[in-house]
Amino acid sequence: MVDIEHLEFGLETFGDIVANEDGSLKTAAESIRQIVREGQMADELGLSVMGVGEHHRPDYSVSSPETVLAAIASVTKNIKLATAVTVLSSDDPVRVYERFATLDALSNGRAQVMLGRGSFTESFPLFGYDLTDYDDLFNEKLALYDQLRTEKPVTWSGKFRAALQDQEVYPKTEKGALETYIGIGGSPESIIRAVKFGYKVIIAIIGGQADRFKPYIDLYHAAAEQLGKPEFPIAVHSHGFIADDEDEAIEVAFKNIKANFDRIGLTRGWAPMSREQFDGETKVGSFYVGNPETVAQRMARTIDLLDLGRFDIVYGAGNQTAAQRERMIELYGTKVVPRVKEILAEKAATK
Amino acid sequence: MAIRRVGILGAGKVGIVLAGLALAAGYEVRISGSDSVEKIALTIKTLVPGAIASENTEVVANSDVVILAIPLSRYKNIDPTLLQGKLVIDAMNYWWETDGIREEVLDPTTTSSEQVQAYFKGATIVKTFNHMGYHNLQEEARPKGDAKRKALFVTGDDHDAVDQVAAFVDSMGFDTVVHYQMADGIMTEPGSPLFGASLRHDELKHTIDHFDQTDFGKQIADRMH
């Protein structure tokens, strides 16, 4: 049963380049400053989490999310500050710990680490890693991160980084441990791995119906029980766009999400998104697009179906204007979130 | 020989989806992963109840058709004699993000399935299930005659094997467009307008029939000359 009182609603951005009203593009620097403004809005609207992704490509502005989150920390009070995600495989776990512990200090304990393998691969050659070590890199670095997270002296050795001998890493956090999620795309192996480490799980549902993840969430709970590990409510992240008018929302989302997916598809070899695919994703799939009532109904269904503890909407895909992005955030905070809770409460009452 | 028992090598996203479809179609299903049976048992029991988690050798020995659903870079981890005399479906693609640099995995003058066939000399390889996204495969399997039914491309050098696999694909919930030439598998590899697309029979057939007019078709033609 969904715990409505503790249900968390987040916003995440991958740092897409913001458009001007005339369709021209803002600079990456302007786009980064826009995210800080949006983080402040999200906090004022009472949202639970602001997540910023890490990319190393021309179509995204943020390669250093903790720096952006640090700026947001200084203008916000309550919202948690997360990466979406930190590509641990091509990072140094010691640096990851240090950056987040610093962010945690600046934000009075609001830092949230979301570790993943990332769905892009630019960071591998950039930082000198070999893609064929994809699995080994993540496993080894996660094991080291897990030791660092204890905030006790670490003795460790592995293939991909210098060994550590009784090494202290600073600064220590005030709570004694960084809140940590593992972001997964839904492979059974990833779920079992997250359970073994005892971390919270956020599932990226970026294609198809949420229904197909139900067995995977059952697997999470079954594995936690079998291995005697802690169980947390599952979080999900999916793309979304909200506007006052339903048709406007659909057209803006189609144009921008299609442009975004097709551009990525060009380098990764998949076919352009058809209108039929987009409509399928919007009606019953992983895009939460429409006016506030439509989006609230679809989010409530997914939260109820998968028994979630948190839902993050990924906003800003493609090149949206600042006005479109800000209006969406406002509608999300003022209309969608209260309506989702209302729908879930009605459902709970009839159960 | 009628297909009654389906073996799947690979318990990742694609392997699990195909196991679910095969169970729904009434087949006996065995599946193996890169981990031990003990390690994948809970996953199989939870995600595809009814499928039998097993080792590669057991899966192959007890199956009428074997599906390769592992990353392309790992097929050489399987002993080539294991599939001796078997009907095998190659659902794999070259995918640089998991497989690494193409030249290190594949001879650039030929297609991935031709190399898989060359490696598993004693097996009969048919390529299919490789070009539609796994969530489309899962969500869009439909009964024969359904107006919304989607189609898959099936190709291989052995005429009878291709026909047999096409009938199997049909039983799994998809129409088929059939060719009898393994090299044509390139038409559905990453970069093709068919890769990641989910199309009805007429749409798939139209693109296949006019493949030389697509950008990807032109690139392939340039590469070959």
Layout of helices and strands:
The complex is a heterodimer of chains A (351) and B (225).
Chain A: E1 8-13, H1 28-44, E2 49-52, H2 65-73, E3 80-83, E4 86-87, H3 93-106, E5 111-116, H4 123-126, H5 134-148, E6 154-156, E7 164-167, E8 179-184, H6 188-197, E9 200-204, H7 214-227, E10 234-242, H8 246-268, H9 275-283, E11 287-290, H10 292-306, E12 308-315, H11 322-350
Parallel strand pairs in A: 1-2, 1-12, 2-3, 3-5, 4-5, 5-8, 8-9, 9-10, 10-11, 10-12
Antiparallel strand pairs in A: 6-7
Helix pairs in contact in A: 1-2, 1-11, 2-3, 3-5, 6-7, 10-11
Chain B: E1 5-9, H1 13-24, E2 28-32, H2 37-47, E3 52-53, H3 56-61, E4 65-68, E5 87-90, H4 96-99, H5 102-105, H6 112-119, E6 124-127, H7 134-140, E7 151-155, H8 159-172, E8 175-179, H9 201-209, H10 215-224
Helix pairs in contact in B: 1-7
The ordered H/E elements of chain A are EHEHEEHEHHEEEHEHEHHEHEH
Give the CATH superfamily of chain B.
NAD(P)-binding Rossmann-like Domain
- What is the ordering of alpha helices and beta strands of chain B? EHEHEHEEHHHEHEHEHH
Main sheet overview of chain A: 8 strands, parallel, barrel
CATH top level of chain A is Alpha Beta
Measured distance between first and last alpha carbons of chain B: 41 Å
Rg on CA atoms of chain A, Å: 20 Å
CATH architecture of chain B: 3-Layer(aba) Sandwich
Q: In the CATH scheme, what's the topology name of chain B?
A: Rossmann fold
Assembly context of the chains: heterodimer
- CATH architecture descriptor name of chain A: Alpha-Beta Barrel
Shape of chain B: globular
Mean pLDDT of chain B: 93
Mean pLDDT of chain A: 96
